[in-house]
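Sequence in, structure out. Go.
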Amino acid sequence: MTETPGFPESLASARDEMIALLSDLVNIDSPSRDPAGVDAVRDRIATFLDGEPGIRLSRMPIPGHADALLAEYLPQSTAAPGLLMGHMDTVFARGEATARPFRIEAGRAHGPGVADMKAGLVMNAFVLRELARSGLAVPLRALFTVDEEIGSNGSAPVIREVAARSAFVLNSEPGRVSGNVVDGRRGGAFYRVTISGRAAHAGLNPADGRSAIVELAQKILAWTALTNPETGVSVSIGIVSGGQAVNMVAPEAEARIDVRFATVESGEAAEVEIRRIAETPFTPDVDGRMECLGKFLPMTGNAALTADYIAAAAQVGLALKAEFTPSCSDAGLTSSMGIPTLCACGPVGGGVHSEREFLELDTLVPRAMAAARLVLSRAAA
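Output:
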């Protein structure tokens, strides 16, 4: 008679199931601003977990977005539960999954969002399922959120609510290409600036017009000059639009701005300057308005949690370190609450936010087992 493996060893036999669920999720378009698509991802995960012993599923409404999903395994235990966290939205537009469906080549999986971060969602779901099936008195939650790629404005209150009741957080963003996890990140913010000028005929009476495009061009130069590697601040103008006709002095223009910062203070200072430039005209009779579309806080790691995770990873044959990365994530929110947090705990991938995105399939099981061993070690502490 073959003995059924215990937890977390049972994850090793789930590899094919994990890949099948990953394929399903990647083949669902889930742009941040497409509630139906994100809902479809949530429903697929909920179907996977529904009916598992001891797992309770709750939909958490987020106005203007799809609902988040909270999956909980809370057996009788005096320990506070850990939290596995991940976002269901991607940066890719509807239709991308049809154009580039899930595929496997030379040990790598490809497709929109395969690493960032649908593989992390799969990992979290399987760790929770296998723990629940084991019957161990080790409490654990998994939170699946909906708008991380646009700043988590909607998800932030839900993240705060769930994280406040958690002992630690593993955010399952993709592991670095090096295999490392992340114990520090910059913060970030997204802004929209709208410029209002005055229309005029470009040939007949251009002097009567006030070009919003010319105004915006001057502001762009001023904004980008705020980049300062010494303070960890970088400013990038990602989207620009404006004008109505080629033979018209442009009456309006718009820019979307991405700002990254190493500290809360440097981020606040950058916002003050960006707003000043937005609202101070280079051209008379031109107005500028700025609004914040989303904001991430810098992440500071927890040395004890990081050491515990590295030790857990070593138990399954993973030799890795923790590193700082200049990008941002929801881990900044939970770490700012004082909750021990570690990021990039998901399977290893690269080329994210591009058609070159890939996932190293052989990391699916080991990273899941590392997270599982960390959960067990923390519960036993």
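Check: Residues 258 and 266 are 14 Å apart (CA to CA). The chain has a mean pLDDT of 96.
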